[in-house]
Amino acid sequence: MQKVIFKDLGLIEYATAWELQEKLFNEIVAKKLENRNLSGSDRQPALHYLLFCEHPHVYTLGKSGKEDHLLANAEKLEQQKATFFRINRGGDITYHGPGQIVGYPILDLDYFFTDIHKYLRLLEEAVILTLAHYGIAGGRIQGMTGVWIDGNDPVRARKICAYGVRCSRWVTMHGFAFNVNTDLSYFGNIVPCGIVGKSVTSLEKELGKKIEMEEVKMLLKENLCQLFEMELVVG
């Protein structure tokens, strides 16, 4: 049972959160390398973090993404008070904004399992279990990351949670974006995750009412703890 330091950063600028992620990531890697030169009794305990936050309107493009999947020009972004970043995660382009739970697990997978596919599937499963609490059947589409509703129906399939991670030396960063009370109109400025012909949705849209964010966060944390066999410690 690994202890994971949990921080809810609230509404935070994307660049500030990215800088914090990099700091914590580098801290974990440095400690990991240091421990390699120490005997068992002298080794420092592993560090792990889980960050939750919301961002002001922002679009981020992963390493494998195409810039033409951003459909808005600089003038339109400025009008909508949105920013744009090219970042060092996998995946294509996505949107973050208020009403969306963004999760950044910064974990040393050597203390969990060294399987990035299992890691992504468990992150997806945490959201699927959370949706089930609200009577929504979430699932996957073969060959695509993310959590979908009506994923087996090519016409009605819609994504409710996007994923994009980085993993180096088995330490993770970046993570997932779960649409709870998100303004979905902002997705009209991109080809979400580079997937043409698929729509996006939110918990609010599916249930027809605004959802209490703290309740969703609590359920999500409980599911992550169960799936990863970890204990959260408020940091």
Descriptive keywords:
3-stranded mixed sheet, single chain, globular, alpha/beta, 235 residues
Molecular structure report:
With 235 residues, the protein is an alpha/beta fold. The protein has a single domain (2-58, 94-234), classed as BirA Bifunctional Protein, domain 2 (2-Layer Sandwich). Helices cover 29% and strands 29% of the residues. It has helices spanning 14-36, 74-79, 116-133, 203-207, 213-228; strands spanning 2-11, 49-54, 58-61, 83-86, 93-96, 100-106, 138-139, 147-149, 158-168, 171-179, 199-200, 230-234. The strands form 2 sheets. Strands 1, 2, 6, 7, 8, 9, 10, 11 and 12 form a 9-stranded mixed sheet that branches. Helix 3 crosses helix 5. The longest helix has 23 residues, at 14-36. The chain is globular and about 55 Å long. The mean pLDDT is 92.
CATH top level label? Alpha Beta
- The value of Rg in angstroms is 18 Å
Number of helices: 5
Helix and strand element order: EHEEHEEEHEEEEEHHE
Number of strands: 12
Low-confidence stretches: none
CATH superfamily: Bira Bifunctional Protein, Domain 2
Helix content: 25-40%
Average pLDDT? 92
Q: What does the largest sheet look like?
A: 9 strands, mixed
CATH architecture descriptor text? 2-Layer Sandwich
CATH topology: BirA Bifunctional Protein, domain 2
Structural class: alpha/beta
Q: Give the termini distance in whole angstroms.
A: 17 Å
In percent, how much strand structure appears in the residues? 25-35%
**How many discrete domains?**
1
The geometry reads as globular
